[in-house]
Amino acid sequence: MPVGLFRVCLLVITAIVNHPLFFPKENGTVPENTEEIIQKMKAREESLRLEQLRLEQEIADQEATQKALEKAAVVVEESKEGKVRWDMWTALSMVIFLLIELWRQDFQEGNWQDIGGEEDDMAVLGKAFKGVAFPDKAVLASFYEKRILGTTGDMARMREMVEGFADDLLEALRSVCNRDADMEVEDCVGVGSMYENWRVRKPFVCDLIVPFAPPEPYCFRCQTWCSGDSFPPGEQGYGTIKVCRADEDATGCICDKTKLGEDMLCLLHSQVSSTRPSSEMEDLLCFKNTQYLDADQVMKWFQIAVTKAWNRISHKYEFDLSFSLLDSPGALKIKFKSGKSIAFNLTPVVQYENSDVYFISHFPRSGLAADIPSSTHWFLTFAVYERRFIQLVSKTLPANACHVSCLQILSFLHGKQCSLTGPSGLTNYHLKTVLLHLLQSRPSQDWAPEKLEARLQDMLKFLEKCLHEKKLYHFFIGNGKVPAELGFPIIFQRAEPLNLFRPFVLRRDIYRKMVDTFHEMLRNMSALINEYTVHIPLAHTNGIRKEPL
């Protein structure tokens, strides 16, 4: 009972203590705080809703951007695959084209030097000869006698006069040069049409080459495109000339070929002797900061030396000497008081080793070396061997052989045609190369004087064939059948044949002009010859049709 009463009292006391009205000041603000909390919660809910919308928009934008990037990546990948496929087909097409071109060249070329069995090919050629009246033997003989034969004596007298004066001029040049510092000039050598007796067009011009060498203790080290060094295809026929000391590399020392350490010295060659100042090499006519001989520097030095030499001996002669052409540094002209003049070319050259092949800096009046890669590249001339070959073959031919006559007539026709229609890429050197090939391939009896007409037709047909194929190979380079009596360097016989028409392969305008000039020359040949021919009886001229120029 007391326990139950105690529990009832405890319950009543607890109820009174926890009644809301027992502490009125503490619980009087509850309703007001609730409304404020509800407003804040609504505001917070609104801000959360806006934030949610913003986040959803950002997510949507990111998804759109990702899709655009993925689409762009797919497009780029597809374009790369298409480009790879296109490049693959392009490369494959180029390879197939090159293989076809190489096969065609090999098929057409065959053994290019062996043209002795090409008489059948000659028979099916000559498309340009259709409808062209070719002069007969009587007309050709009369033309040659009247127009060409009389110039031989004039050439001989002019050669003699020019050679005598050139020797005197070079002797004076040696006297004005410093023997310890300047180049050493040797005797001149006559080359070209004037010394091969086939020049017909006036004015007559003698071509003289002057070999020179460096002063002691220097020497020239020559490098050609076929000596094992890497030369681009466009530099075939060229070489470089390095100026070195005579004892350089003579012992086979590796100090110039291998980099030595900073703390190592060569006991044979000191550092002082191995390095030469730039000014010293420029005094030796080298290109700036190199040891390679500069063709432009050589021509400037030669012109100055010739001018000094002429000033020393001018009082001995009753004529004036001057440089005649700006684009040909070695072109000289003798002017007499009577108004007459004589032109000749004096060109410095460098001998290749112990042969008669020479490095030449400039070709007077010729397109052979028109596009020289640089002034340190020198073109090789085989003019001395060409003259010797013609002299050697002439000894085996019948008396009064027609080989020189063919070249003279063809050169005359080409010169006349160029005076009418303008110059073309075809030069007299190309015509001489054709003759050299035919001289090697045909037997001696085929060059008898009565076969002038047939051999002239052979030359024209051979030239037509070369123009059609865009191939006319240099006679000496790559020709293993050069007579041993000439002593021709074996390195050039083993070299790849040099196509003289190669520059015209990519120059379609020049090639077209060259072909058109050749065809015009054929059409005008009869008229050009008859213009300089005495009257021939009608019996000899039947069938000859003179075409208008």
UniProtKB/TrEMBL annotation:
Topology within the bilayer: Single-pass type I membrane protein
Record key words, sorted: Cell membrane, Coiled coil, Glycoprotein, Membrane, Nucleus, Signal, Transmembrane, Transmembrane helix
Pfam family, one: Mab-21_C
GO terms for cellular component: nuclear outer membrane; plasma membrane
Coiled coil spans: 38-72
Signal sequence residues: 1-20
UniProt subcellular location: Cell membrane; Nucleus outer membrane
Primary localisation category: membrane
Keyword Glycoprotein: yes
Residue ranges of domain Mab-21-like HhH/H2TH-like in the record: 404-477
GO MF annotation list: protein kinase inhibitor activity
PANTHER family per UniProt: CELL FATE DETERMINING PROTEIN MAB21-RELATED (PTHR10656), INOSITOL 1,4,5-TRISPHOSPHATE RECEPTOR-INTERACTING PROTEIN (PTHR10656:SF8)
Family to which the UniProt record says this protein belongs: Belongs to the ITPRIP family.
Protein purpose: Enhances Ca(2+)-mediated inhibition of inositol 1,4,5-triphosphate receptor (ITPR) Ca(2+) release.
Record-given protein name: Inositol 1,4,5-trisphosphate receptor-interacting protein
Organism: Chaetorhynchus papuensis (pygmy drongo)
Gene label: Itprip
